[in-house]
């Protein structure tokens, strides 16, 4: 299984996510590879955010 990659067109701004190894074209020019949003990447120790508090969600039951 290939890794997903994000690409953006420098002309029109269109973005796509693909698993193909070839660089896609848009507006008759090759698209630029961009990093995927962290939420789209698999969970991994390098992506951990230990500086964020992991408190319970506010369920609006308090006063």
Q: Any overview of this molecule?
A:
This protein is an all-beta fold and 63 residues long. It has a domain at 1-36. Helices cover 0% and strands 24% of the residues. It has strands spanning 5-8, 15-18, 25-26, 29-30, 32-34. It has a three-stranded antiparallel β-sheet, with no helix packed on it. The termini are far apart. The relative contact order is 0.22.
Can you give keywords for this protein?
single chain; 63 residues; mainly beta; two-stranded antiparallel ribbon; 5 strands; 24% strand
Secondary structure: elements and pairs:
Layout lengths: L4 E4 L6 E4 L6 E2 L2 E2 L1 E3 L29
Antiparallel strand pairs: 1-2, 1-5, 3-4
Residue runs with pLDDT of under 50 for 5 or more positions:
none
The biggest beta sheet reads: 3 strands, antiparallel
Strand order of the largest sheet: 2-1-5
Count of extended strands: 5
Secondary-structure content class = mainly beta
Radius of gyration: 18 Å
Mean pLDDT: 76
Strand content: 15-25%
Which of globular, elongated, flat, extended, rod-shaped describes the shape? elongated
Helix-strand string: EEEEE
Estimated helix fraction: under 10%
**Distance between the ends:** 51 Å
Question: Number of DSSP helices?
Answer: 0
